[in-house]
Automatic annotation (TrEMBL):
<dbReference type="InterPro" id="IPR036856">
    <property type="entry name" value="Ald_Oxase/Xan_DH_a/b_sf"/>
</dbReference>
<dbReference type="GO" id="GO:0004854">
    <property type="term" value="F:xanthine dehydrogenase activity"/>
</dbReference>
<dbReference type="Pfam" id="PF02738">
    <property type="entry name" value="MoCoBD_1"/>
</dbReference>
<dbReference type="InterPro" id="IPR008274">
    <property type="entry name" value="AldOxase/xan_DH_MoCoBD1"/>
</dbReference>
<dbReference type="InterPro" id="IPR016208">
    <property type="entry name" value="Ald_Oxase/xanthine_DH-like"/>
</dbReference>
<dbReference type="Pfam" id="PF20256">
    <property type="entry name" value="MoCoBD_2"/>
</dbReference>
<feature type="domain" description="Aldehyde oxidase/xanthine dehydrogenase a/b hammerhead">
    <location>
        <begin position="27"/>
        <end position="133"/>
    </location>
</feature>
<dbReference type="InterPro" id="IPR000674">
    <property type="entry name" value="Ald_Oxase/Xan_DH_a/b"/>
</dbReference>
<protein>
    <submittedName>
        <fullName>Xanthine dehydrogenase molybdopterin binding subunit</fullName>
        <ecNumber>1.17.1.4</ecNumber>
    </submittedName>
</protein>
<dbReference type="InterPro" id="IPR046867">
    <property type="entry name" value="AldOxase/xan_DH_MoCoBD2"/>
</dbReference>
<dbReference type="InterPro" id="IPR014309">
    <property type="entry name" value="Xanthine_DH_Mopterin-bd_su"/>
</dbReference>
<dbReference type="Pfam" id="PF01315">
    <property type="entry name" value="Ald_Xan_dh_C"/>
</dbReference>
<keyword id="KW-0560">Oxidoreductase</keyword>
<dbReference type="InterPro" id="IPR037165">
    <property type="entry name" value="AldOxase/xan_DH_Mopterin-bd_sf"/>
</dbReference>
Length: 813
């Protein structure tokens, strides 16, 4: 076992512990960014001046009326920016734009003594606009050929030969929606200037170092004059990876110009209408199967809805392409990607970061095609799994390690869920109930862990031991409720060999650990855990030398376990506190900076080939649903999950992440329906679902009635911190099983073997239309052949897939 993975005697990792802030969370004493306003004197409040048009060129901004409003101190415009007027890393997101690019775009900001004064001041600002045509939907952009950013192309094998060898070729088109992050805490920042003119920003951000970088660009000052701290976030889910930077820059600019602290926080409607979402996608595809239903070739084009600027759309698209294979061996593939430019908010990172979109495409294809191939969907999926020992690689060229775990978790879920018996029970139920049907589906996942950009795969830490034996750890990861800080404290305690109560964790800030990567890509524990372990190992090695002298032994024979140093074969002991005290008086350094970089990664974005991921996380879920044939309403009766987290650092935290990820994924796939005004009226481009009253989120009523989650056992991951695997993003994709179970239930209303199309999100309305399609029994109809290949079309989220066999093609059918 590798040094990084090996666990010492009596480790603190692997113990089920509550979240380190759980007590503060439930008692209301946990502080968030906006709570700090009450502890800060003379705070000004920032409020956006929004233009409620989808697209237009600004011809005039008059701020004088705002300055006449009592309590208004200043109006910030582009003329006030001393540095670069841009909030993005691609230099396509002006902080103060000359052109309105989406409905609700902020063009200026008002600073007021109170929030109400700032709001009234913003309402008084006069903006003149030369309105321009707008593209609201993804279909609009595709039709207008409105694209921006890179257009990656992933190829593998011989696509033409693959289709030539296919007994069945099916084509189709599939469009699916994005998703609102809807974190509990909206975007917030508080900026202050000290007596030396340096900026200190409290920000609800997943990426403090990049917030620091953007603020320094906007202010035109070096990074060492800007410090960013993140206490904790009330949720992030990727929505606070890139988007907080510009908002923090507004607060910092206001503080710099007025000399007073400036606070910014969106209300819920502002957050929903001004911040980006998960990218919606359009996929056109052609797939070939042999006579046994094994995939021979896939040709697809994925179009992501990037919104008005690039943000993180390029890496999101790249990860979508890298995950279109999911758990399936595709010997010949050609997958193209492109990013549509629309006049909506700039879409951004969201848990899974494009992976869910790519995986959804192949899962939808298999669920759609299985009845047309005369196969049970579960059997079709199994036949196409990656197989161990076959030398199979992903379409981008990375070997699939631990491929046996795909089948292992799949079989364990079948056993745990009693699939065979329940399948018979469901068939009997459906036969006896003409107006209510049940469906049961299993889906699996293979999710790559690491940032696609190799340079981001590094982490840092600073660990301090004080004379009394207490330990303070700093690392570059941010806490958004996922339990990262809890795990990092466990890693530190394990590495030093001390009880957990000896360890405290400081808030994440850029003047303690510099140049950090975002807490994203499920890499928080891997990168920061490796860095903390490295720092603690440096300290432990120094202390072992001190202990060896005190115990009269060689340092290599000394162990520190549960806060006591002992030499092998000796009864002598030295308590941790005494050891640290002795080390101090021997002038031994009691602080260490740790560093970790993920080894073995390489990626060529131009050729779209390489091994961008350290390892793959695997999982499988079985879901049973019940659907009402009159309304399409449904309930989730039971969910069984087996998920691979390696050797868990903190099992209770990990199980919570699996449960939460699954429910959030089910929300995306079945409930959360983003809608914009696409009319040509005065409100064109307005987000219609801008509150919890119109945007349906999962609640207790959507939770599975029976929810069983098990972590894969004996699953140590070589080369990862204490043998663990990432857990943040992968479980979200287990929710594919909900959508596929709904497809099965809808199909049960029609004749045997009917192929059912299902929109995404599969709202009750969408399920009802799928039921109607199944009742007609026409969803699996054969289409005409165009150039020897069936053509497919798409209308309003529905797929008209068509199939042909070689015999039909030869006969001219």
């Amino acid at each position: 076992m590798s040094h990084l993975s090996e666990r010492p005697e009596k480790p603190v990792v692997g113990v089920s512990l509550p979240h380190e802030s759980a007590f503060q969370h439930v008692t209301g004493t946990a502080l968030y960014t906006d709570d700090l306003v009450q502890r800060t004197k003379d705070v000004l409040h920032a409020y956006p001046v929004q233009v409620m048009k989808a697209h237009g060129r600004i011809t005039a901004i008059r701020t004088e009326p705002a300055l006449a409003v009592p309590g208004v101190v200043r109006v910030l415009t582009g003329a006030d920016v001393p540095g670069v007027n841009d909030a993005g890393m691609k230099h396509d997101e002006p902080l103060f734009p000359d052109e309105v690019m989406f409905h609700g775009h902020a063009v200026a900001w008002v600073l007021g003594e109170t929030l109400e004064a700032a709001r009234l001041g913003a309402a008084a600002v006069e903006v003149e606009l030369d309105e321009l045509p707008s593209l609201i939907t993804l279909q609009d952009a595709i039709a207008a050929e409105s694209f921006h950013g890179a257009r990656p192309l992933m190829t593998h094998g011989d696509i033409d030969a693959g289709f030539a060898d296919s007994a069945h070729v099916i084509t189709g088109e599939f469009q699916f929606s994005g998703q609102e992050h809807f974190y509990l805490e909206t975007h917030a920042a508080l900026a202050q200037v000290d007596e030396n003119g340096q900026i200190f920003i409290q920000s609800s951000t997943q990426h403090p170092s990049e917030t620091q970088e953007i603020v320094s660009h906007v202010l035109g000052v070096p990074a060492h004059e800007v410090t960013v701290q993140c206490l904790r976030m009330g949720g992030g889910f990727g929505g606070k990876e890139m988007q907080p930077h510009g908002f923090a820059a507004i607060a910092a600019l206001g503080a710099k110009l007025t000399g007073r602290p400036v606070r910014f926080r969106f209300n819920r409607t502002q957050d929903l209408t001004m911040s980006g979402k998960r990218h919606g996608f359009n996929a056109t595809w052609k797939i070939g199967f042999d006579a046994e239903g094994r995939i021979q070739a896939l040709d697809a084009t994925l179009t992501a809805d990037g919104g008005w600027s690039l943000d993180l759309s390029e890496p999101v698209l790249a990860r979508a392409l890298c995950h279109i294979d999911n758990t399936y061996w595709i010997p010949n593939a050609r997958v193209a990607g492109r990013i549509a430019k629309t006049n909506t908010v700039s879409n951004t990172a969201f848990r899974g970061f494009g992976g869910p979109q790519g995986m959804l495409v192949i899962e939808d294809i298999l669920g759609r095609c299985a009845p047309q191939l005369g196969l049970d969907p579960m059997e079709l999926r199994e036949r196409n799994f990656y197989q161990p020992g076959q030398g199979q690689t992903t379409p981008y060229g990375q070997p699939v390690t631990q491929a046996e775990r795909i089948s292992t978790v799949w079989q364990q879920v079948q056993d745990d869920a009693g699939i065979a018996d329940r399948g018979r029970e469901i068939a009997a139920f459906n036969a006896a109930h003409p107006h209510t049907k049940r469906g049961l589906a299993i889906t699996g996942i293979k999710f790559g862990i690491s940032f696609n950009l190799t340079a981001f795969n590094q982490g840092g830490a600073l660990v301090l031991i004080y004379k009394d034996g207490s330990v303070l750890i700093n690392h570059g990861g941010t806490e958004m409720g996922q339990g990262l800080h809890t795990k990092m404290m466990q890693v530190a305690a394990t590495t030093l060999g001390i009880p957990l109560h000896k360890v405290r964790l400081a808030p994440t800030r850029t003047d303690k650990v510099p140049n950090t990567s975002a807490t994203a890509a499920s890499s928080g524990a891997d990168l920061n855990g490796g860095a903390i372990k490295n720092a603690c190992e440096q300290l432990r090695e120094r202390l072992l030398l001190v202990a060896a002298t005190q115990l009269g032994a060689n340092a290599s024979d000394v162990r520190i376990v549960e806060g006591v140093a002992r030499a092998l074969g000796s009864d002598k002991e030295l308590a941790w506190d005494d050891l640290v005290h002795t080390a101090y008086f021997q002038r031994v350094q009691l602080s260490a900076a740790g560093y970790y970089r993920t080894e073995g990664l390489h990626w060529d974005a131009k050729s779209f080939r390489g091994s961008p991921f350290k390892y793959f996380a695997y999982g499988a879920a079985a879901t049973e649903v019940e659907v009402d044939g009159f309304t399409g309403a449904y309930r989730i009766r039971r969910v069984d999950i087996v998920h691979d987290v390696g050797e868990s650092l903190s099992p209770m935290i990990d199980i919570g992440q699996v449960e939460g990820g699954f429910v959030q994924g089910a929300g995306w796939l079945t409930l959360e329906d983003l809608r914009w005004d696409t009319s040509d009226g005065p409100h064109r481009g307005r987000l219609l679902t801008q509150a919890a009253s119109t945007y349906k989120l999962p609640s207790f009523s959507e939770m599975p009635e029976e929810f069983n989650v098990r972590l894969l056992e004996n699953a140590t991951e070589e080369g990862a911190v204490y043998g663990s695997k990432a857990v943040g993003e992968p479980p979200l994709m287990l929710a594919f099983s909900v959508r596929e179970a709904l497809r099965q239930a809808a199909a049960a209303f029609g004749p045997s073997g009917v192929s059912v199309d299902l929109a995404s999100p599969a709202t009750p309305e969408a399920v009802y239309w799928a039921i109607e399609e199944a009742r007609r029994g026409d969803a699996s109809r054969l289409g005409h052949v165009v150039n020897g290949v069936g053509a497919g079309g798409h209308v309003n989220g529905h797929v008209d897939g068509e199939i042909r066999t070689d015999a039909e093609a030869l006969s001219g059918a």
